[in-house]
Q: What sequence folds into this?
């Protein structure tokens, strides 16, 4: 057991866990953040994607010891918290508008991969979007509406605020 | 549900060396190979793990004495982003871009690819063709191992049990041409069926080729140099005749196998054809 | 659609397609309890019901559910394809009192299960000691433990002793036929005698894995009455429910099935969850605690059902102008070790085998046979993709031999209104084969596109440039091609399937004034939870967000039949319209004819709850004879066409599918975005089937039982997909829907294979068209060219185009 401290969605977390415990299990089982999904446990499907210090990573491949002192963002941290409830971010709203989520199991990972792409200044170019989500498998959508959603969010994000 | 073996996280290299000397530990860098092993589904999980992620000494990309030096912890994403790599050895960024997808590139390291010693490791043929030197070390000191002496048998390296991969040095050569080609089953997140790296020196496009190095992955039990083919190409020009001869030589030289990803015949044929194509393109005919 | 290629094909969908949806920042608008968006969501149709929950991570899939004190369950499986199960040996060094072990001897009820009602149960819930193991990874025993570490140790301490028996892997060698059919129409001999040309061909397809991203998952919770409640990832609550009753010998109330949010099914969660639910329940009843059985990926791939491999043979007679005069077709499906759904799958293969083409003289023989691999089962398309790829590819080869374009030969033969199918069904309405074909051709400008590839060939840049010796790169590095395919897909179950289920749908107006649909049809991404309330709302004349969809829990909802066979929108939707109309009439009648919309809340306050139901009644038309295979197998047919463009890497044989235009007739489109989503997703599964999805089997074991070895297309492999919807309403249901989910799966593969041919001149007769097969074809055709005999792997070289 090792003491591990990190920030999840802005909140500090401190727990005792085996250092080789997968971040995926820490999130889902120790912290109850079940929005992060497991589809393969070997880095192939991206359903377990989270944002670690600004990079999208597969949480099934990350040992807990390597997140000590780091900043993690999961799907639960995308929507803005307000006293009246949560407000979806542009990307979530765009997925809703285009139909980017079907069964939804790939969606949390997809959103986080796309979030990093957009935060890095990614635009609506389809090929670039496809490369950014190539590590996230989706069996339902054929990716069409996912790509559309990300492009839409890229455009929305580019418009000056309040426009 | 994976096993969770004990792990230590040394803060500097000296401590890491000391722990490795104490008893053998399995290092973890980016974990993209090792974390698959702890599932216990394939191969046996390690008993004791050493987390290298805090070893700042193993990070960084630099240009030193005409050699590009990359720390063992350099990730594919860092290689792709590096201005230095883009200027001095763009083919390395090109190869890094073919590894896995974003998530893997953000975590997977060059040192991990080298130490993991998979016959399908994508950077390994490139390191062979570029005559890279792999610097390793432990409590007993450091040593340099030329790439072509590093992968000595199936998934076996020249590393001693108490040693770590520290960095890679790649000589930069003025008139060198390098080509890299990966053939996988799909266009992202695919383990190679064939990887090929070819380097040669040529001051002018019309010149004969010299110092030819051809290295291949996924066609043998380890990444290999195709020495007969190198010899064949040495001193030749990029003509159809050369291409045909080189293709035939390489097809005869390698002994690929049938496995879950492809067949021996396909690997042999494709190796020959992509080599032929590279020579065709170089010759401009 | 974004900027990858600016010009979207000119054909637009028949549904209103406003400009790209956009999110306008403004005030926050609440879209779900506690969830809002900034500004208005501009979208087509209502938002997906559970969309907000799926986007925030709130949605609870089975593995997300927490049951305090739950144990973890695991399955001990065979590692041989066929063997006698001699013993389960438990290492005395392990403390077995810390876990529970279940064997066949612990099954209180029936030891054998059948996939669905009406099929003979032949699959052991667990193979008994002394019994025969029929496939690799077959379940032999179960273990549950309080934690995973103990479970792992217990699994290691249990060993299986077996004695190998000779297995059968080739369906052509099988001595056990689960079911067979022989359909005869006209006079085959006379047809062949009249033909100007006769062409034969054999086509093969391997397994395909559904590969839902959420693995199979089930949690069983014992109840005080000696029964069990299961929460799981599943398509058909009322398949699981009777399965639990039979195996556990409990009554209908003791068995309760609750669907958790389900991360994809595609048929893979049609029958398998029944077995898993029994397993979890056996453990839960024995340890008196909830038991979680969550498969890991490799177990899911190794043990669960796949699409049936098939061998299909065609012998076809045609006139010089391309008119079909005789079709002799043999279909062999590899059912795997147990019967499961094979008879139902074979029924669909049989009825679809001739393709959407008129032919007066037909004989279709078909059989599903046993081999020693895990049982094959339902997968989107359900037996149709396995016959559409052969008939379409065969037709292309005929067209080529006759010098007719693939488009023209389809125009000439496609069913028109009034035509008669081989089972004797008169196609008397809703026939849209020609329309979907023309729309697809127009969308890609098929003739012009083909002329370009044709010219490339004539100028020596096409097929001739492909021809090189095996070790030489050809002049050009790649070649492009275009292909088209056409299919029909029967709506709902084959034959009397619907009659067997007697589905009931209920709509209620509860005492609080809430309108609610009660049906067992599950949401697994395809949109049930959104479209059924839309259908009800329309019939009631109220906004769809005023209609709730009750949870899929057998304690709450009636049996409206399984969520399979693209039947939800069409069949269940039809029952729902009728039920809603009844409710509406009842409410309006007691409120002086004032509209339901205006009075329903008031009515509920005054009269309390009201309910109305509708139960399935046979459609008009000829009854279907399940033995003779004559009559109307489906009340209506859907029609689908697909055009695909590919680039073939001539060095490596890799195929990149660049663009697919899919045109589908679903009767009516209920929700444009969800409908397109079905087409896009189904199309990509078909592209995977055509190109890279190959299950390698060795000694009855799937070699690629992981996601690093069984590859499905990523976003960069996926083509740009354009969905065009055509509406040819079905008049047998009040709202006209025919179903949509499966059609895209039928047409994608033959279109891709046709495009590969257009690019390279080779015919691929075995799916998938792996680079290994394509390269073998390329170099074989080169060899033939060098010897002066043009050809393509033994097939005829095309004549010119007309
Ligand atoms: C989904 C997926 C896709 C992949 N795609 C590709 C691909 O396309 N091409 C490819 O080549 N590989 C691929 N890989 C494999 C893997 O990502 C690479 O081999 C990567 O470079 C490994 O680096 P790592 O830092 O993650 O290694 P780790 O997993 O941390 O370590 C790998 C091995 O090397 C040892 N090791 C690591 N660093 C050192 C060191 N400094 N000194 C001594 N020993 C060390 C470890 O003990 C372990 O045995 C893929 C993996 C996954 C999961
Ligand atoms: S579960 Fe981590 S990548 Fe699939
Ligand atoms: S929406 Fe189901 S896997 Fe992507």
A:
């Amino acid at each position: 057991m090792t003491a591990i401290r990190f920030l999840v969605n802005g909140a500090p977390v401190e727990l005792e866990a085996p250092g080789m415990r997968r971040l995926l299990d820490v999130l889902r089982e120790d912290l109850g953040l079940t929005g992060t999904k497991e589809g393969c446990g070997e880095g192939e499907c991206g359903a377990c994607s989270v944002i670690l210090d600004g990079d999208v990573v597969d949480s099934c491949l990350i040992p807990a010891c390597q997140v000590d002192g780091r900043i993690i963002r999961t799907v639960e941290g995308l929507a803005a918290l307000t006293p009246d409830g949560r407000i979806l971010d542009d990307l979530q709203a765009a997925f809703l508008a285009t139909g980017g989520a079907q069964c939804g199991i790939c969606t949390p990972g997809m959103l986080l991969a796309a979030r990093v792409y957009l935060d890095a200044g990614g635009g609506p170019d389809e090929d670039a979007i496809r490369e950014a989500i190539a590590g996230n498998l989706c069996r339902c959508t054929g990716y069409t509406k996912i790509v559309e959603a990300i492009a839409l969010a890229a455009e929305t994000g580019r418009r000056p605020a309040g426009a | 549900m994976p096993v969770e073996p004990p792990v230590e996280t040394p803060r500097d290299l000296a401590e890491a060396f000391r722990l490795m000397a104490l008893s053998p530990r399995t290092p973890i860098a980016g974990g993209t190979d090792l974390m698959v092993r702890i599932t216990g589904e394939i191969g046996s999980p390690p008993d004791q793990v050493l987390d290298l992620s805090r070893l700042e000494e193993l990070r960084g990309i630099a240009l030193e004495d005409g050699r590009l030096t990359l720390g063992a912890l350099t990730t594919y994403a860092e290689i792709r982003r590096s201005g230095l790599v883009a200027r001095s050895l763009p083919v390395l960024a090109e190869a890094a871009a073919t590894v896995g997808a974003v998530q893997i590139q953000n975590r997977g390291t060059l040192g991990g690819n080298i130490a993991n010693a998979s016959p399908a490791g994508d950077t390994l043929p490139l390191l062979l063709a570029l005559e890279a030197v792999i610097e390793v070390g432990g409590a007993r000191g450091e040593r340099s191992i030329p790439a072509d002496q590093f992968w000595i048998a199936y998934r076996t390296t020249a590393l001693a049990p108490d040693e770590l991969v520290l960095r890679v040095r790649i000589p930069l050569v003025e008139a060198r041409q390098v080509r890299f080609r990966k053939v996988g089953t799909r266009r992202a997140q695919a383990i190679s069926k064939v990887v090929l790296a070819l380097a040669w020196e040529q001051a002018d496009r019309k010149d004969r080729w010299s110092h030819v190095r051809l290295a291949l992955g996924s066609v043998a039990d380890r990444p290999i140099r195709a020495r007969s083919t190198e010899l064949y190409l040495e001193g030749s020009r990029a003509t159809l005749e050369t291409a045909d001869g080189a293709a035939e030589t390489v097809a005869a030289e390698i002994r690929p196998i049938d496995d879950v990803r492809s067949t021996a015949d396909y690997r042999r044929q494709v190796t020959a054809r992509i080599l032929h194509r590279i020579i065709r393109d170089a010759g401009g005919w | 659609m974004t900027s990858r290629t600016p010009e979207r094909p000119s054909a637009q969908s028949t549904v209103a397609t406003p400009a790209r949806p956009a999110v306008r920042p403004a005030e926050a608008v609440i879209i779900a309890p506690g969830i809002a968006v900034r500004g208005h969501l501009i979208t087509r149709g209502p938002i997906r019901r559970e969309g907000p929950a799926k986007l925030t991570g709130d949605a609870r899939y089975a593995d997300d559910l927490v049951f305090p004190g739950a144990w973890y369950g695991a399955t001990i499986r065979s590692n041989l394809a066929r063997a006698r199960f001699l013993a389960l040996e438990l290492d005395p060094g392990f403390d077995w009192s810390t876990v529970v072990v279940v064997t066949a001897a612990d099954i209180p009820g029936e030891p054998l299960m059948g996939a669905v009602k009406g099929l003979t149960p032949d699959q052991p819930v667990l193979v008994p000691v002394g019994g025969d193991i029929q496939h690799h990874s077959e379940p032999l025993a179960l273990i549950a433990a309080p934690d995973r570490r103990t479970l792992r140790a217990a699994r290691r301490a249990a060993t299986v002793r077996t004695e190998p028996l000779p297995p059968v892997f080739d369906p052509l060698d099988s001595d056990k036929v689960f079911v067979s059919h022989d359909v005869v129409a006209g006079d085959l001999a006379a047809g062949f005698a009249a033909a100007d040309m006769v062409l034969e061909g054999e086509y093969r397809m391997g397994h395909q894995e559904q590969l839902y991203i959420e693995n199979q998952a089930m949690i069983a919770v014992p109840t005080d009455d000696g029964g069990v409640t299961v929460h799981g990832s599943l398509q058909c609550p009322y398949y699981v429910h009777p399965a639990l009753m039979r195996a556990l010998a409990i009554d209908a109330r003791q068995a309760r099935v609750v669907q958790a949010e389900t991360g994809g099914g595609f048929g893979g969660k049609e029958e398998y969850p029944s077995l898993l639910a029994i397993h979890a329940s056996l453990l839960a009843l024995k340890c008196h605690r909830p038991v979680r059985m969550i498969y890991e990926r490799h177990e899911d791939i190794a043990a669960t059902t796949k699409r049936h491999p098939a061998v299909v043979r065609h012998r076809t007679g045609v006139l010089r102008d391309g008119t079909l005069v005789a079709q002799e077709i043999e279909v062999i499906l590899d059912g795997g070790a147990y019967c499961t759904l094979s008879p139902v799958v074979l029924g669909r293969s049989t009825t679809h085998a001739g393709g959407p083409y008129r032919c007066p003289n037909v004989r279709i023989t078909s059989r599903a046979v046993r081999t020693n691999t895990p049982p094959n089962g339902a997968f989107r398309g359900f037996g149709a993709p396995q016959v559409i790829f052969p008939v379409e590819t065969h037709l292309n080869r005929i067209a080529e031999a006759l010098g007719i374009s693939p488009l023209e030969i389809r125009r000439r033969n496609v069913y028109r209104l009034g035509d008669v199918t081989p089972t004797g069904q008169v196609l008397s309405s809703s026939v849209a084969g020609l329309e979907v074909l023309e729309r697809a051709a127009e969308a890609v400008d098929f003739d012009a596109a083909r002329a370009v590839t044709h010219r490339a060939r004539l100028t020596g840049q096409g097929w001739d440039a492909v021809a090189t010796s095996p070790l030489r790169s050809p002049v050009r590095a790649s070649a492009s091609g275009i292909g088209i395919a056409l299919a029909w897909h029967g709506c709902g179950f084959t034959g009397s399937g619907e009659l067997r289920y007697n589905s009931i749908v209920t709509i209620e107006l509860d005492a609080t004034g809430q309108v609610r649909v009660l049906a067992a049809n599950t949401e697994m991404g395809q949109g049930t939870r959104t479209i059924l309330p839309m259908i009800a709302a329309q019939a009631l004349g109220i906004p769809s967000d005023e209609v709730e969809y009750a949870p899929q829990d057998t304690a709450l909802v009636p049996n409206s039949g399984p969520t399979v066979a693209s039947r939800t929108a069409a069949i269940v939707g039809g029952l729902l319209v009728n039920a809603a109309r009844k409710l509406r009439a009842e409410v309006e009648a007691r409120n002086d004819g004032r509209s339901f919309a205006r009075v329903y809340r008031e009515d509920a306050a005054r009269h309390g709850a009201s309910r109305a139901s509708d139960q399935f009644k046979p459609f008009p038309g000829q009854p279907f004879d399940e033995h003779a295979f004559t009559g109307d197998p489906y009340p209506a047919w859907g029609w689908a066409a697909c055009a695909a463009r590919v680039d073939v890497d001539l060095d490596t044989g890799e195929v990149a599918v660049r663009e697919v235009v899919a045109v589908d007739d679903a009767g009516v489109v209920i929700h444009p975005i969800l409908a397109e989503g079905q087409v896009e997703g189904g199309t990509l599964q078909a592209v995977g089937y055509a190109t890279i999805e190959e299950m390698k089997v060795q000694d009855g074991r799937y070699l690629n039982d992981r996601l690093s070895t069984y590859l499905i297309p990523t976003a960069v492999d996926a083509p740009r997909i354009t969905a065009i919807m055509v509406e040819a309403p079905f008049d047998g249901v009040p709202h006209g829907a025919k179903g949509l989910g499966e059609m895209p799966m039928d047409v994608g593969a033959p279109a891709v294979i046709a495009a590969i041919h257009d690019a390279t001149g080779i015919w691929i007769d075995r799916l998938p068209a792996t680079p290994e097969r394509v390269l073998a074809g390329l170099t074989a055709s080169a060899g033939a060219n060098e010897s002066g005999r043009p050809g393509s792997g033994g097939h005829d070289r095309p004549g010119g185009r007309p």
